[in-house]
Design a protein that fits this description.
By secondary structure, the chain is an alpha+beta fold. The chain is 37% helix and 33% strand. Strands 1, 2, 3, 4, 5, 6, 7, 8, 9, 10 and 11 form an 11-stranded mixed β-sheet that branches. It is globular.
Length: 330
Amino acid sequence: MSGTAEDADFVVLNATNIDARAAEWLQRRQFWNWSDQDQADLDAWLAESLVHQVAYWRLYAAWDRLERAVALRGSARDRMLIDGGKRIWALLAKVAVGVATVAIIGAGAMFFLSDPSRQTYATALGDHEIVTLADGSQIELNTDTVVQASVGPIERRIWLDKGEAYFQIKHDPTRRLVVIAGDHRIVDLGTKFLVRRDARQLEVALVEGRAQFESSDAWTQEHSAVLLPGDVVVASANSVSVTRKPMQKLSAALGWRQGVLVFNYASLADAAAEFNRYNREKIVITDPAVARMTIAGTFPTNGIRLFGAAAQRVFGLSVERRGDEIVISR
């Protein structure tokens, strides 16, 4: 089907409007008193379209890079710009809209600011995708995940903006590979590893090979550790810890690659939170005592009703569907 000039103008205008809307959301999140309702509204807008997710997280990554760069420079003038925010934001928003006029926003990849080799990959809620980079490395994206990748002649860089991904890296001694997640970096030494990032913390689990974990937060103590198979790093705003887990537990954590969730005496609250990552229909547990009950078993990631039936049959709990919620109580 051929398109007219008017169709092309509409596509550019629509892309521009989406980027402008993404810029508005990010401005509100950075400079307003952000509430739970604001977060719910943003989540709803992101859930409407994968295009919305890519536009928002692309802009978020640009802001994050700019903010950290200014923080590292550390001059009084630069800090005033970050504190005020609006002058930097105005410039960034103009750049975002300018990019939208020359880029076709797609589900797979897009050009990003000054680095044309930097591509964005994203999955919607409940989706699962495997991306193969130009060097043969693979990134397996779990539900609701956004990554960016740039494979250059000197260095390979991957940014995990949100979500969870499993990395199988082709080691190249002439081009190191660095995974960046917020204020933390994982430097590949020939590895397979899992990285999960949410609003509270970052978790890195090494499955095979070796990797260097580094903290690049300009405001707190620097951390660095060489990870071996079975090592798990958990990094939050105020702490970094390294523990070891048996490979059986790491394999269970990777169950989503086969479309399943594996629970080994997890609390019902934790199990519900996992299901809610994959499904628009949400599990709500109203009783704290019920939330602390534990369950063991393997369920499909979309098996939210099967989980409810198990809770009813095994524990004798009440399971009631209310709109888009499955409410579990005594």
